[in-house]
């Protein structure tokens, strides 16, 4: 564990090496670095687009943006009883965002931020950090939109770090550490995907990008 400042350079080296930071609690200044024995990933061609989520995406109740409220999304993800995001990690991701490496997808209902997801882009890999929801399906919409956008901008790997029942229901799987590192190396060595190179897809475009996945 360490309690020193997490710099953007340190974070980028860590992600490139396949490790990520966590803390025991929001008020714990210490940080430890994690390289799980089994790693969670969400294959970009394997998002589980259910009929109900498809219908919700096609409705006009919500609108979705990219990098319009990064700080608020991270704070939304940390606003829970138990969180691994302490102040040190907060500052590190904010610094990465200012440098163009950390990004967020926001879901809005009128002017209210009701959900979102954020993570780190490096090479052709995207490292999903956390997501939150204040309205039914808001985090699913954020994640589906992000996956569709990563597909259309040339990403190859979406790292979820761990799997949860919720993520598995959306298509996440576990792979052994060695296999993950091979996938990561390939994604880092095959060029750089530019997440800002195309507009964020919405509605029909999201569904079109995800239609090749295992829908129900």
What does this protein look like?
With 216 residues, the protein is α+β, with helices and mostly antiparallel strands. The chain starts with 7 loop residues before the first helix and ends in a 6-residue tail after the last helix. A hairpin with a 2-residue loop joins strand 5 (102-109) and strand 6 (112-122). The strands form two sheets. Strands 4-5-6-7-8-3-9 form a seven-stranded mixed sheet, sandwiched between helices. A two-stranded antiparallel ribbon has the order 1-2. The protein has a single domain, classed as Leucyl/phenylalanyl-tRNA-protein transferase, C-terminal domain (Aminopeptidase, 3-Layer(aba) Sandwich), CATH 3.40.630. The model has no long low-confidence stretch (mean pLDDT 91). The protein has helices spanning 8-16, 51-58, 70-78, 87-98, 138-152, 165-169, 177-189, 204-210, and strands at residues 20-22, 32-34, 38-41, 63-66, 102-109, 112-122, 125-133, 157-161, 173-176. It is globular and about 45 Å long.
Key terms for this structure?
Aminopeptidase, seven-stranded mixed beta sheet, single chain, 216 residues
Write the layout of secondary structure elements.
Elements: H1 8-16, E1 20-22, E2 32-34, E3 38-41, H2 51-58, E4 63-66, H3 70-78, H4 87-98, E5 102-109, E6 112-122, E7 125-133, H5 138-152, E8 157-161, H6 165-169, E9 173-176, H7 177-189, H8 204-210
Parallel strand pairs: 7-8
Antiparallel strand pairs: 1-2, 3-8, 3-9, 4-5, 5-6, 6-7
Helix pairs in contact: 5-8
């Amino acid at each position: 564990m360490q309690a020193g400042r997490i710099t953007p350079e340190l974070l980028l080296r860590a992600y490139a090496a396949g490790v990520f930071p966590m803390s025991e609690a929001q008020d714990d200044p210490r940080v430890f670095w994690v390289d799980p024995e089994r790693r969670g990933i969400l294959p970009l061609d394997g998002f589980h687009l259910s009929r109900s989520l498809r219908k919700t995406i096609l409705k006009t109740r919500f609108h979705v943006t990219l990098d319009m409220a990064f700080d608020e999304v991270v704070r939304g993800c940390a606003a829970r009883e138990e969180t691994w995001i302490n102040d040190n990690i907060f500052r590190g991701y904010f610094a990465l965002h200012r440098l163009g490496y950390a990004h967020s997808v926001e879901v809005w209902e009128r002017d209210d931020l009701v959900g979102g997801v954020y993570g780190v882009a490096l090479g052709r890999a995207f490292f999903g950090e956390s997501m939150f929801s204040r309205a039914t399906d808001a985090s699913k919409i954020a994640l589906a939109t992000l996956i569709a956008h990563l597909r259309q901008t040339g990403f190859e790997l979406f790292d979820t770090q761990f799997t949860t029942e919720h993520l598995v229901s959306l298509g996440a799987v576990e792979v052994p550490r060695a296999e993950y590192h091979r996938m990561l190396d390939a994604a880092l060595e095959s060029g750089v995907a530019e997440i800002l190179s195309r507009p964020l897809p919405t509605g029909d475009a999201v569904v079109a990008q995800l239609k090749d996945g295992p829908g129900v």
